[in-house]
Each structure stands twice: as C-alpha cells, then as structure tokens.
Specification:
Helix content is about 55%, strand content about 10%. It has helices at about 10-20, 55-70, 70-75, 80-95, 95-100, 105-110, 115, 140-155, 160-165, 170-180; strands spanning about 25-30, 35-40, 125, 130. Helix 1 (about 10-20) crosses helix 4 (about 80-95) and helix 4 runs antiparallel to helix 8. The longest helix has 15 residues, at about 10-20.
Length: about 180
C-alpha cells in the first residue's frame, strides 16, 4: 500500500499554502539565491526570456507538487494532513534531495513526527546567508519555516496560515466589505 498520496484535502491545502508562500510571477526573475525562477517558484529549465499564463503556472505547481511529494509517498505510514502539507512545502522549497538528506526526513521515517516538526526552523539559510539576520534580504524564509513548523505541530490551521499570509480575508473583513 502506498501512503501519503497527493489527493483531496492535502492536495488542496498544499496548493493553497505553497502557492501563497511562493507567490506567482509570470515572467522570470532571479530569486534571493540568484536562481532564475518563474510562476510559483519553478526553477527547472527556466531561462530569462520565458513567460507563462496563470493557468500554465497552476499546472506547473500541481505537477511539481506531485514530484516533490514522492519522498513522502515512500514512508511506510500515513502522515497527518497538517504534517504532510508542511513537509511537502519544505520539499517543494528546498528540493527532494535536501528533504531526503535532512534530519527532518530521518525523523519522519522513524515515526518521530514531534521531532520532525522541530527541524523546519534549522533551514533558514539562503546562499550561505543567515536569513534571521537583519539586512539578509531573505527574511521571508524564516516566516516560511515558522509557518511550516506551526502547521506541522498543529498550532496553526491551513486557514489560519493563509490568513496570516494575507491570502484569506478574515470574517470581519468580509462583513466589512459587504456592508459598504
């Protein structure tokens, strides 16, 4: 039996969380590590003269999430959805090789979910820079790791994470908008 398939609520949660954390850019740009990037953080084969529609970017994200989920599918047990989404976002952001070599993955393989959840915040470096330091120009990665940690531990729901990132309006925002 294969576990941790990317279907249903986990797929929708991963698309929402990772898509929001990555943002979208339809034209190539160089990320904080100097890597050419497009759409929701895609780097494979990106050149300076490309552009994609929102629909093409959505298809790339779904395909890429499926690829980055492969290490999680090789675990011999079902991850809770919040842990699965956090680990998949980590894999998407850093790559499957980084996930497979990480202590986070080692702990997941050992069924130590609580220990795995404490590993995200160790990954706060970009191109050798400590992103916790002021002026590092990569502080977004620190926020991302905090969100992954809180999702993993259950301290933060997907909805709350999206609200924190400004993706979902709060109930009071909705009520305010319709009452004007």
């Amino acid at each position: 039996m294969r576990y941790n398939k990317l279907i249903g609520p986990v797929l929708f949660g991963a698309i929402a969380v990772t898509g929001t954390l990555e943002g979208i850019r339809n034209k190539p740009y160089q990320d904080s590590g100097g890597i050419w990037t497009i759409c929701h953080g895609e780097t494979a084969g990106v050149t300076q003269n490309q552009s994609y529609t929102d629909e093409q970017c959505a298809m790339l994200l779904a395909s890429s999430l499926s690829y980055h989920n492969e290490p999680l599918e090789s675990l011999n047990y079902q991850l809770p959805p919040n842990v699965h989404i956090a680990a998949l976002d980590f894999s998407y952001n850093l790559g499957t090789n980084a996930l497979r070599r990480s202590t986070l993955y080692e702990k997941l393989q050992g069924h130590d979910i609580a220990g795995a959840c404490q590993e995200f915040n160790r990954w706060v470096y970009v191109a050798g820079r400590d992103c916790r330091k002021e002026g590092s120009n990569c502080s977004g990665i620190v926020t991302r790791r905090e969100i992954e940690t809180q999702l993993c531990t259950g301290e933060l729901s997907i909805k709350a994470a999206l609200q924190q990132l400004g993706h979902l309006p709060s109930d009071s925002d909705v009520i305010g908008a319709i009452s004007h």
